Amino acid sequence: MARTIAIQENIFCEPCKECGSRPVIEQVKGTFSVRCPQHKSHYKTKPGLINIDDWNLKNKTHPPLGNTANPQKAS
Ligand SMILES: [Zn+2]
User: Fold this and answer.
1) Separation between Cα atoms, residue 67 and residue 12, nearest integer Å
2) Domain boundaries of the chain, sorted by first residue
3) pLDDT value of position 61
4) Where is this region: Disordered (predicted)?
5) 12 C-alpha to center of ligand 1: Å?
6) CB neighbours of 2 closer than 8 A, spacing ≥ 6?
7) Core vs surface per residue 6-23: b (16+ CB within 10 A) or e
8) What does the buried/exposed string (b/e) look like for 25-46 if buried means 16 or more CB atoms within 10 Å of the residue's CB?
9) Which listed residue, 16, 30, 39, 48, has the most CB atoms within 10 A of its CB?
10) Could you tell me the distance, in angstroms and rounded to a whole number, from the CA of residue 66 to the centre of ligand 1?
């Protein structure tokens, strides 16, 4: 009884790191998950509010390991 909702094109989403699909929002009763539309076993955010940030974090292909994208560290 889940229904899926396309995420608007102007919202940035990482593609699924396993199959490259653009995620969709799955609605089950009053809760939402961001998930891969192709495979149930691929990453899915916890049901609740729509959390694209969490999806993006988990589907980044290159995690920022010691990579300072953070400009607060000036020498
Ligand atoms: Zn996938």
Assistant:
1) 21
2) 3-58
3) 81
4) 56-75
5) 17
6) 26, 27, 28
7) ebeeeeebbebeeeeeeb
8) bbbeeeebbbbbeeeeebbbbe
9) 16
10) 27
Spatial separation of the C-alpha atoms in residues 10 and 44, rounded to whole Å: 21
Ligand 1 centroid–CA 55 distance in Å is 11
For residue 5, what is the enclosing H or E element? strand 3-6
C-alpha 17 – ligand 1 centre gap (Å): 7
Euclidean distance between CA atoms 38 and 30, whole angstroms: 22
Percent of the chain with pLDDT over 90: 77
Beta bridge partners of residue 73, listed in sequence order: none
Tens-digit pLDDT profile for residues 15-51: 999 999 999 999 999 999 999 999 999 999 999 999 9
43 C-alpha vs ligand 1 centroid, how far in Å? Answer: 7
